[in-house]
Amino acid sequence: MGIRAKSNFDRSRTIWTPEMDRYFIDLMLEQLNKGNRFDDHVFSKTAWMNMNSSFNERFKFEYEMDVLKNRHKTLRNLYKAVKNLLNQKGFNWDSTRQMVIAENKIWDEYIKVNPDVRPYRVKTIPYYDDLGIIYGDNSARKKGDDITGSSAQPECANKGTVEAVHEIVVVDDCISLRQEVEDTTETTLNATTNPLYSRTRTYWQPPMDRFFIDLMLEQLQNGNQIDGVFCKEAWKEMIASFNAKFGFNYDVDILKNRYKTLRRQYNVIKNLLQLDGFTWDDDRQMVIADDSVWQDYIKVCIYM
Fold first, then answer.
1. Total domain count for the chain?
2. Is residue 7 part of a domain?
């Protein structure tokens, strides 16, 4: 997580974690409050230098300024994509779940024209309010009498919007070496599912994982796990609490599938930490190693 490996590939990538995004957004808000941004939403050179220095110091990186500037563009594209959705008739913002909502038939019609925005149907964006402050008019989310949405043909997503969708989704559920776009086990129908399909995928966000992990810890403390397996009553209690928290109507298989995914991620990280050169960084909550160690390991993994 958070590794930008130096290798012989044409283009290295920065894997952004939610903590990195949150800190970067806070830095931009700070510079905005200090007046270090021009009217055309462009931060001053001094602002970028200050943000880059603070970011590298916080996460112990040696990134060039272009890394933050590229992320700035990605977040801007994300904000524009969500704002565009909220300007369409029938789409609204759910402040409780922090996501765009609409009736199934509205989503179905819009996705037919814009298939690349499908992830937004089940994606939470916990920092959208802050993005509105940074990138534009925040009133578009709060639909009043003067903002009713467009009744015209839905606008097609541009290339930047599509890239923003894909990159943000990758970040939300990343592990140290491989990123998962969504929970890879297909699930049964639920409240957010397109009724035209028999199976769907659940896009997990950090708040959902945190709450589910807390539920499992609670059941563990209550003695409702036997030989590493939660009892039937424990699963019933967890899915009831989970659905009540996030307003879903999921069945218990959703949590069981996520349990398997988290267990798999834990095993990957545990195996890494047993290898020479890999250690755990408590401050950044990630596996760290020298670049040469990462490169040698990744070379082996690529050809496995």
1. 2
2. no
